[in-house]
Write a sequence for this structure.
């Protein structure tokens, strides 16, 4: 299993050329792909604010994206929320969504596919790009 950060999920489905070669290969080889429900919220928020335009209404885009047999949505549990809150605030990026996505990957014991340099610097063994 792997977890995709929001941008990696979007690029995987809309423009895979934006992914790194190792990320693209890992996604192709992995039978289970987890998407945090926080990524769904982020995507919908970007669309609502006009910072992202999709080829269909956001609800339809998400439904189609999650219809892939390998994909599943993962909601933050109380343990994930506590883990996210406990991440070192001096060395981990401050974005609450990133904290929840990272903590979800940790809880699933799965690598996080992300281009985010700050998250990769925080724990390079838990991330892939």
């Amino acid at each position: 299993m792997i977890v995709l950060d929001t941008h990696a999920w979007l690029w995987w489905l809309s423009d895979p050329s934006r992914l790194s070669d190792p990320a693209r290969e890992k996604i192709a080889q992995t039978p289970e792909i987890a998407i945090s429900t926080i990524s769904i919220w982020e995507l919908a928020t970007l669309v609502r604010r006009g910072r992202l335009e999709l080829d269909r209404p956001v609800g339809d885009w998400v439904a189609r994206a999650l219809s892939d047999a390998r994909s599943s949505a993962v909601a933050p549990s109380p343990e994930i929320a506590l883990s996210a809150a406990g991440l070192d605030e001096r060395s981990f990026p401050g974005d609450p969504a990133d904290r929840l996505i990272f903590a979800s990957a940790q809880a699933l014991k799965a690598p996080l596919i992300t281009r985010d340099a700050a998250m990769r610097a925080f724990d390079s063994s838990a991330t892939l790009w």
About this structure: The beta strands are 2-4, 33-36, 71-74, 112-113, 127-128. The mean pLDDT is 96.
